[in-house]
Design goal:
Blueprint lengths: L1 H15 L5 H55 L2 E5 L6 H5 L6 E7 L2 E5 L5 E3 L9 E7 L9 E8 L2 E8 L5 E3 L7 E5 L3
Parallel strand pairs: 1-8
Antiparallel strand pairs: 1-9, 2-3, 2-9, 3-4, 5-6, 6-7
């Protein structure tokens, strides 16, 4: 009889043990999935902001390189003039350049420099921006006799502009609209 009672008390212990029901486990797993998805979306948004800030920094750095490089080139140039040309076809620009001159324009998404022989190379570094457009215009009526050049850069949807002084010569242009090619004669 004692053996029988022990067995019954062991069975009661098995049935009286506390545990999780299937419903409790499903609810807990659902809450856990919700928390994990919120954490994942936070990291995804943070990553997008980081990439956006990185693209902006790249655009500003490339624009700064172009501005600084152009300041040196314009300051030492003997002559300069602005033209409108289809920069996706360098042959259109090549016909405008004479010996000792260089054309500065955007070609295949890279700010480039082309010499009289038609050799094209990246000008002032290339950070591989998604989009870049550079335009130029002479700042009129400033008392500088067309020696002030405005450079406007649109890089990765950020617009930056500066004015560059040309101490050696004036910059000439045809018409009053913004140009996309700058041609400078070196001071040799």
């Amino acid at each position: 009889m004692i053996n029988n009672q022990v067995k019954l008390s062991d069975q009661k212990k098995l049935w009286n043990q506390k545990g999780f029901t299937l419903v409790e486990l499903i609810v807990t797993m659902g809450l856990l999935m919700l928390i994990i998805s919120l954490i994942y979306s936070f990291f995804l948004i943070s990553n997008n902001f980081g990439k956006m800030n990185s693209d902006k920094a790249d655009a500003q750095a490339q624009s700064r390189l172009i501005f600084e490089g152009l300041k040196k080139e314009v300051a030492t140039a003997k002559t300069g003039f602005l033209v409108i040309a289809t920069s996706d076809s360098p042959e259109n620009i090549l016909g405008l350049i004479k010996d000792g001159e260089y054309a500065y324009f955007v070609y295949n998404g890279v700010y480039s420099k082309m010499n009289f022989a038609g050799e094209i190379e990246p000008a002032f570094g290339n950070l591989g921006l998604d989009t870049i457009a550079v335009s130029y215009e002479v700042v009129a009526d400033t008392g500088f006799n067309n020696k002030l050049l405005r450079v406007i850069i649109l890089a990765n949807d950020i617009t930056l502009e500066t004015e560059i002084y040309s101490p050696n010569s004036g910059i000439t242009e045809a018409g009053g609209q913004t140009k996309n090619v700058l041609i400078l004669k070196t001071a040799i």
